[in-house]
Amino acid sequence: MKRIRKTRRERIEGYWGLLLVAPTIIGLILLNFYPIVQTIWLSFCKTGDFGLGNKFVGAANYARLFHDTEVWQALLNTFKYALLQVPFSIAIPLVLAVLLNRKMKCRSVYRTIFFLPMICAPAAVAMVWKWIYNQDYGLLNKIFGAHISWTTDPKIAWISVAIVGIWSAIGNNMILFLGGLQDIPKDYYEAAALDGSTGVHAFFHITLPLLSPMMFFVVQTGIIGALSLFDLPYMIMDRSSRAFRYVESVEYLFYHYSFELSDRGYGAAIVIFMLVIIAVISWIVQKSEKKWVYYN
Known about the structure:
Strand content: under 5%
Largest sheet: 2 strands, antiparallel
Helix content: over 70%
Strand order of the largest sheet: 1-2
CATH topology of the largest domain: MetI-like fold
Number of strands: 2
Number of helices: 13
CATH superfamily of the largest domain: MetI-like
Shape: globular
CATH architecture of the largest domain: Orthogonal Bundle
């Protein structure tokens, strides 16, 4: 095969293109790829005495991990949170997006109100909800006239954390669904109306199939976000509470061992273990795309 020689102008343009993307490439290498490689290496090491140096211990950290009941409890907590948070953070925004996609008064105001949680700092959101959940003078107990231990009862503490996660995700997912709804041609609904299709029938046979690419994106990012849970339990829950063991996530254990106990090798093994789980689940979701995602 004859090699096509580039002109001087094409070579100069290529050099300029490489020069312009170089800062991004360097940033990815230094801030993303190198830390991943370093974390994998640390997972096979043990922090030296007094935090000095790392000693290679092979798969000892992983052997310890598989026998650690705290890790498996944290993994169970994370999956329970994801199974509750992801479906509701998709269903509720989808319904709101369909309602706010219609012509109505103050539509922009409603959209802004539902999107507000996304622009609030996570720490501020957690502190507000911590006061709302307060057992003695919290807003929820005042409304229900009850004395429920929202964040200290092991049976419902994880549900309380999931509610905050759902509330925080509504605005972002609603905006994404609104964007997908506005890309659906109106001709489909007009043709369906001529055939006597009702609003509910049109929703399940037109809206959902044509919105499935956006739903696929929201599902995948939602699962990854839910399995990467860290900040909500850490900021809402009191770590001395008996319920904290039932809401702590795998990401929190990584933080706890790496930065609080200075056991960076074991912390790295925990986060690599979770990374593999997320990668496998993402692969399964990707494989399911052909079965329920439709591209018009």
